[in-house]
Amino acid sequence: MNDNILLEVKNLHAGIDGKEILKGINLTIRQGEVHAIMGPNGSGKSTLSSVLAGNPTFTVTEGEVDFHGKNLLDLSPEDRSHEGLFLSFQYPVEIPGVSMVNFMRAAVNEKRKYFNQPALSASDFLKLMRQKRAIVELDNKLASRSVNEGFSGGEKKRNEIFQMAVLEPCLSILDETDSGLDIDALRVVAGGVNKLKTQDNATIVITHYQRLLDYIKPDFVHVLYKGRIVRTGGPELALELEEKGYDWIKQEVDNL
Amino acid sequence: MGSINQYIELYNENHQAIARHSSAALNARREKALSLIDGKQLPHRGVEGFEKTSIEEMFAPDFGVNVNRMNIPVNVAASFKCDVPNMSTWMSYIVNDMFHVPANARNNMPSGVIVDSLNSPQSQNIVAQYYGTIANNADPAVALNTLLVQDGVLVYIPRGVKLEKPLQLVNIFSSPIDLMAMRRLLIVVEENAEAQLLICDHTQDSEHNYLSSQVIEVYMGKNARFDLYDIEESSKKTARYSRLFARQESGSNLLVNGMTLVCGNTRNSYDIDVVGDNCETMLAGMAIGSGNQHADNSSNVNHRAAHCRSSQLFKYVLDDQSTGAFEGSILVSPDAPYTEAYQSNRNMLASQQARMHTKPQLEIYNDEVKCSHGATTGQLDASALFYMRSRGISEKEARLMLMQAFMADVIETVRMEGLRDRLRHLVEKRFYGQQTLCADCGISCHDNK
Predict the structure, then answer these.
(1) How far is it between the farthest Cα atoms of chain B?
(2) For B211-245, what is each residue's pLDDT tens digit?
(3) Partner-chain contact A95 B387, CB within 8 Å
(4) Which among A158, A81, A47 has a CA at the least distance from the CA of B397?
(5) Which residues of A touch B382 (CB under 8 A)?
(6) CATH at A203
(7) Domain count of chain A?
(8) The complex's ipTM?
(9) What does the domain layout of chain B look like in residue ranges?
(10) By residue range, what is the domain housing residue A28?
(11) Does the pTM exceed 0.95?
(12) B-proximal residues of A, 113-132, CB under 8 Å
């Protein structure tokens, strides 16, 4: 582990339709780290991931986010992607009529354009797809289908990690990647994430359950409650939550 | 009185010339047509079904009509090396309102098949039997077409003949002055015969005002199978009023797919009369609007026999200030038990100013039926847009990809693989703003020269 800060969130406030959901998030993530964000339903976990990815549905009202030297909040969602941020969606969107191949080709080539690189040749692109598909054992058949359309829950999540493998982000946010997965699919998806792990990138794992953290080992565990990070600890915190639930933390916070 | 009078006057002044240039079968229908329009008005916004498109206004300008058959020189061969890659066709042309067939264009066509002028001697028996019997002259514009038409195309597929490659007809406007063309197609597909026809509408320039009045009559014998693909890539100054009338005998299978890619002011009407049992009818269409373009489709599927199935799918993507209209109806008569009839109209508005008007209708006079209809008009899916942007695809590109994707199921109805590919390409080009004039239209693939 080194001291290179990848993401620094300072006092982030954000909401939707005038209703504040994030009420002052502070979070520092360095290269090589895995952070788990846990918390009860409605605490703001998914809002945090959406805001970091630039979902225009949410409005940031206060705070700063530095992403390896760039002001993240100034960047469009597409530029955040080019700069190395990746969000694995809790509910990957189905896009009828857009084939996986065209979708990925557009994604890859727009990133290359951003860095002034020429578009990939058809054969290089197909080679890349083949290589990356293997990481999550994604069926070749899915390539010719429309994005996520008719995919099973497991296929959708594998497809997210496949896209992550292709785009090679430096910071990945996995939003409840374990939801809707059976044990076998969970193992494949988590295995994919682990294969993509390096000393230079970092991962934020958002989850309700300890289960996923058996496969993707966190360095830090944060508890999000009522729009704030109310507790931070090591992997043992997740085990404690698994055993005792969230009520004791809620009480502590609510009694303050 | 309306604009129809200027055309009646034109006829009265030129009826001898018109008769001289046309076959007896065409002339035989004129007096009746004249009596039908006498004192009538072309459909205008006050007429039900024409609220959003006035035919009266389309015909009001003083267009030239080529009554004297002046030969307007067009170098067809040089301009239109029409070919769809991986799909060879038997090709012919209508230049303004005159039929042209290139030398060798009918090579290897099975004997008995006719693709020729309505005036040609070999067409006469069939024309005399079917011409004017399927179209409904209650629309004064149809009667006007019958009154003034001087040439047109007969497509005749005799009993049991199955064409192994598609027919293609390229409609071209090319004129040094504003021009109106009366276009007429008679398609007879006899018992157990099969054919596919691809029609492409082009204008050779975007300077002149053109008006196309088109009447298509389709007769389908028992168990006949026929596909009609009608693609309009004209110009912003082109108006088009096209009416298709089809009659389906038992067991026949009809597919009509009308695609308005580039237009000025277009109205297409489809009237399908299903008179025999066990028929299949697929009616599909798309319209892509931008600028001030206007596209209006109207359908009327009339079920008059048992155990038939019809399906309609019309989709629009409208940008800028463009407008669209759809009025679709399904009529199930008491004689049509066990009918299955479906209709769907889905529209996407890509700008604040674009407008869509839709009026889906069902009229059912039989209890033993399965029918549904539905219409939706919405905007681009915001969650899909964000998903794509989060993968690095720019907003502009993502919007274009989603608009294209919206049309995918209309293209899927096409039963010719090579044409499906070509259409995907054409639709993509259209959305990316590469206006395809005839000289480099995707179908008339110039890379193939």
Answers:
(1) 69
(2) 999 999 999 999 999 999 999 999 999 999 999 99
(3) yes
(4) A81
(5) 56-57
(6) 3.40.50.300
(7) 1
(8) 0.96
(9) 4-306+381-448
(10) 5-254
(11) no
(12) 114
